[in-house]
Amino acid sequence: MLAHWRLERPMVVAHDMGGATTLRAHLLHGCDFERYVLMNVVAMRPWGSEFFDHVGRHVQAFLGLPPHIHRAVVEAYIEGAIVNDIDPADLESLVEPWVSEEGRVSFYRQFAQADERYTAEIEGLLADIRCPVKIMWGENDPWIPLERGKALHSLISQASFETLTGVGHLPQLEDPDLVIGRLDQFFHHT
């Protein structure tokens, strides 16, 4: 992606699995970043919840769900990440990609393909991040609890850390003004 857009040192905001992806790009593949925000990211083991593990072991059973029940599963799964009401259009934009036939297969396949080795390979390298780092974490994240963010911070000594009060796993949708304000401070005023 960086080569395609001819980006040499972008400012990066990573969320959820974007954490594992961008950390691997930076630490294993030499991608340099100007500044780097890790927000409620998958960055270290263990991954997932009991539901996540269960679906990963039983993908074929879930693929047989009728479309209306599949939609309800997707909606409940996403709603389980947030602790505040979000704009219904934002919720629908999160659900919609997963309800087509192709999306349904991809939704369940992601659980089966999740592999902790992707973060195991970088856990010992986290102190080697080569740019300013800010970790921001939703205080009430039900998917990746605040303690995981604090543990990540302990491995990236040069990072600053901020708890985002009153939000869950999707701070960018639960309190966008808060997130934009913090990003602006980090990217432009420090």
TrEMBL record:
Protein's UniProt keywords contain Cytoplasm: no
Gene3D superfamilies according to UniProt: alpha/beta hydrolase
Source organism superkingdom: Bacteria
SUPFAM superfamilies named among the record's database cross-references: alpha/beta-Hydrolases (SSF53474)
A Pfam family that the UniProt record links to this protein: Abhydrolase_6
Domain AB hydrolase-1 stretches: 9-180
UniProt xrefs under InterPro entries: AB_hydrolase_1, AB_hydrolase_fold
Keywords assigned by UniProt, alphabetized: Plasmid
UniProt name for this protein: Putative oxidoreductase
